[in-house]
Every structure is written in structure tokens, then in C-alpha cells.
Specification:
The protein has 81 residues and is mostly helical. The chain contains three helices and two strands, in the order ααββα. Helix content is 56%, strand content 11%. A two-stranded antiparallel sheet has the order 1-2.
């Protein structure tokens, strides 16, 4: 069905990084956060109760990957069976 192929095309665009770069998007978004005051994402450590969890770039990449995966799942839910 034509609708399913268009939906799959959208999903492929996100899942296969067709025409865009995850690293570039993450870097761009992080660079727009003024509160980071010029620090790089790999220079900032996330802490919780004095325990180091990870650096910001690792968090951003994991968060981004989960958002893309879940967004694709929502998009796929519009496909006909």
C-alpha cells in the first residue's frame, strides 16, 4: 500500500540516518544551550548524590537514540496491517 511505503520511507530516514548526521544534530543542539557557557559536552559530568553517572555527551547520545526509536515506533503504528 502506498501509505505504508511512505511511512516506511519516513522511518528509514530516521533509523538509517539518511541525509542527516546524529552527531551533528546532537552537537548543534548542545551548542545552543547557553548555560553550558562554552564547555564541551564531553567535559561535563552528570552527578547524582555525589556519584558520577556519565558525561553529558553520552547522556545526549543515549537520549537521542531512545527518542528516535520511540518516535519511529509511533510512526510505524500508523501503518496498515
Amino acid at each position: 500500500m502506498k501509505t505504508n511505503s511512505k511511512i516506511q520511507e519516513i522511518v528509514d530516514f530516521f533509523e538509517l540516518e539518511e541525509g542527516w548526521s546524529k552527531d551533528e544534530i546532537i552537537s548543534q543542539v548542545i551548542s545552543e544551550i547557553k548555560e553550558l557557557k562554552g564547555y564541551e559536552a564531553d567535559e561535563i559530568t552528570l552527578l547524582w548524590d555525589d556519584e558520577e553517572l556519565m558525561v553529558l555527551i553520552d547522556f545526549a547520545e543515549q537520549f537521542f537514540n531512545k527518542m528516535i526509536k520511540n518516535t519511529c515506533n509511533v510512526i510505524k503504528s500508523f501503518m496498515d496491517d
